[in-house]
Amino acid sequence: MNGWTVTATVALGGGGAAAVWGVSTGPLRRRAVAQNLSTTVVCAGLLLLAQGYARPSYVDVALVLALLGPIGTLVFARLLAEDLDEDPPRAQVLTWATAGFGAAVVLAVCVATGPGRAMVKLLVTGVLLICGNLVASRALSHGMPTGEERHG
Predict the structure, then answer these.
(1) CB-CB contact of 57 with 123 (8 Å)
(2) Among candidates 37, 103, 23, which has minimal Cα distance to 70?
(3) Which residue has the higher pLDDT, 100 or 149?
(4) Kindly report the CA angle at 109 between 35 and 120, in degrees rounded to 5?
(5) Rg of the Cα atoms in the chain
(6) What band does 118 get if pLDDT is binned at 50, 70 and 90?
(7) What is the pLDDT of residues 8-39, one digit of tens each?
(8) Beta carbons of 136 and 65 less than 8 angstroms apart
(9) What is the mean pLDDT of residues 39-46?
(10) pLDDT at 140
(11) Domain locations along the chain
């Protein structure tokens, strides 16, 4: 066990437990935010495990998760737009903290990896992860337009 795997264990254990608790309890706004932020925690954990176990294939899984996770949150935001408009999530601090954690993990793994194609893939994963998280969080907090609002 090395520092990468210990950090991944702490991130996945703590962040994963918080996400499961947030998704399974409480009001809709907390469940939606927890679902969105779980993507960041799991993706960062996969990047740490990829470095810790020297398994570049984990980066591919993290890349797919960084792409599809925010899309899933946007689908939920669209389907639950009316309910979220009544009681919108307010998690700016948590969103920025999670984005900062994702950026720190990507930066640390990039430094350990060194220049090359692997670093480019890590940077693309990081950009998708952070930007997707921020866009999805904004969609949750401001609501998605309904059909009448878009056309009228």
Answers:
(1) no
(2) 37
(3) 100
(4) 90
(5) 16
(6) very high
(7) 999 999 988 988 998 898 888 888 888 888 99
(8) no
(9) 94
(10) 84
(11) 3-145
Tokens 């408009």 sit on residue = 85
**Structure tokens of 50?**
């990829």
Q: Give CA 30 to chain center in angstroms.
A: 15
Residue labelled with tokens 């020297």: 54
Residue 57 is predicted with a pLDDT of 93
**What is the 3-state secondary structure of the chain?**
CCHHHHHHHHHHHHHHHHHHHHHHCCCHHHHHHHHHHHHHHHHHHHHHHHHHHCCCHHHHHHHHHHHHHHHHHHHHHHHCHHHHHHCCCCCHHHHHHHHHHHHHHHHHHHHHHCCCHHHHHHHHHHHHHHHHHHHHHHHHHHCCCCHHHHHC
